């Protein structure tokens, strides 16, 4: 059992809260108040309060100088580190924290990083502010926009913003759901960095909250195998900020997809050891990542692996009875309990995802490539075996009864992985246990026989040097393959991600990569219907609940979690929809336009319920949930559809909506009638092919008509 000592952020100068977090064998982290450190904390807190008061005074003086924070990205230039300015005062230079600064910051931000191989580590994150307004004044004078300081002052605490002109933006290297990632050069040093442009709406506190959570969590973590946030570039007016990271040449998705690369056993072991170390660090610090997948695992030319993208990560708090969202983790890497709607879960969700990545490294492709949640779960049961009767009897998972197969599936994992070393299959079997508690902990995986048997993990420096390889490169390669005449979409290895603009017009956001051949269908149908996932699903007759999506904002409880962590009263005014468990928010697009997305509290349509019903039941059969879903669909105003859509590249999309609505087609329950599964999947497959063919044809027509695309 590992132990963590953590001091939770407090919003005032009142005693800081300290928790000890115990990681249990089933992977859950328990946070408990610890009296011993509370004492220490109180004294430190008082010191901090004093510090902050004096800083505020000194800041007031230096306010007029704040715009002079020019090349604040430079660590070396002493001119940028002027005596008396905020960077010296806080021992933070250019948004980066020097080693020295860590010690000096003791009074305001503790970080005891003792990565000790699974025995536990300690951390503290404590903020003691005498007054919120003085903090805001301080931060604004340091160059932070007031809206950011007001909404999420704690996450930027102790930092000064980096200046945009300190960097030269080079090419785009990654495209995420809410972000674009660019390679950039630090002007002064010539050092290459990665800039992650995170878009949000600075008038929407929940939008800022989402971004703030990622920053807060990144600041909590400090490990050689975790992407370190080096600083933040912000502007007063813009609705995006840039997170500055060390540049990493590759991501695992790109490497795995590369036809020239086949990892050896010792290389896989080397990657796995690094990955598990990173995840162990997160878990010991009470953080669950909730989006571990190959494209979020970055590798540099020295063979060092770093876990990135903490956009969905959250603090584990097993004491809290508040539900979490089950709509996390990209579909192919999503554990069965989340597919069955779990709202109480812990770090073991990450262990499942790690298992999926592990298998992918051996296979050279993702192991579980479902296109719908139902199909994903079906694939899981076929691979890992379905749980015993007892499991279903005692399961409290919201959708367990719906997903219970009528007959038991035996595990086929050993057969499927017969080429893997035995110790690897043993570890994989643990990680891919349908029952979360059987997955063990990351620490137990690190201590497993797999790492103790030959061939041992190679040293990262002995890993081959690959040409820059990113998921994006793989997509480009695949796209050009796909365009070659005579190559059918389903022959391509990995599907393209859905375009950003469409994702953003989609109320629920993040699409996982799709099964071969699906992408055309997805792209095209979205283009036709303005990106509305509801209609898209109906169009293809495809039983899909696209909840391999990144929720823009999490459940009420998760918001509260962040509030607690940030101690920010201004954030508690966020509206959430208790009914749907989600807040559908407005999300700005890159060009600054707003994609209006229905708010769960306002819309008559609960995407969660109806989509789930649609993907699970035969609505024609008049199942109660199905009927409810149909009613909901009917009350879903078409005007909402048009308001959520963004024009496709051709500018034509609304015409298709009516057609799409007419085309809605529902099919029968899947797992409650297992004899029909195969037939059902076959039918879906043929729908997909049909729509993909049609979409390719339409795409060609659009391209010919529209000079912009030609
Ligand atoms: N530090 C980095 N160095 C190099 N490339 C990076 C870096 N960070 C991210 N990338 C690239 O950008 C891609 C997207 O980044 P990231 O996952 O952080 O964004 P995201 O919006 O959260 O994406 P997603 O929605 O896919 O999870 C990554 O898959 C990777 O290829």
Automatic annotation (TrEMBL):
Annotated segments matching region Disordered: 31-117, 461-534
UniProt keyword Transmembrane helix, yes or no: no
SUPFAM superfamilies with a match to the protein in the record: Protein kinase-like (PK-like) (SSF56112)
Entry-linked InterPro entries: CDK, Kinase-like_dom_sf, Prot_kinase_dom, Protein_kinase_ATP_BS, Ser/Thr_kinase_AS
The Protein kinase domain, residue ranges: 167-451
Cellular component terms per the entry's GO annotation: cyclin-dependent protein kinase holoenzyme complex; nucleus
Binding site for ATP: 196
Gene Ontology terms describing biological process: positive regulation of transcription elongation by RNA polymerase II
Compositionally biased region (Low complexity): 43-55
Similarity comment text for this entry: Belongs to the protein kinase superfamily. CMGC Ser/Thr protein kinase family. CDC2/CDKX subfamily.
Cited PANTHER family: CELL DIVISION PROTEIN KINASE, CYCLIN-DEPENDENT KINASE C-2 C
Protein name, per record: Protein kinase domain-containing protein
Species, as recorded: Malus baccata
